[in-house]
Amino acid sequence: MKKTQMIRTLLVVALAIGAQFTTFAQRGQMNPEKRAERVSADLKQALTLDDATTKKIYDLELARTQEALKIREANAGDREAMRSSMKGVNEKFQTSMKGVLSEEQYKKYQEWQASERQKRGPRGDGNRRRRR
Question: Is the pTM of this model over 0.85?
Answer without folding.
Answer: no
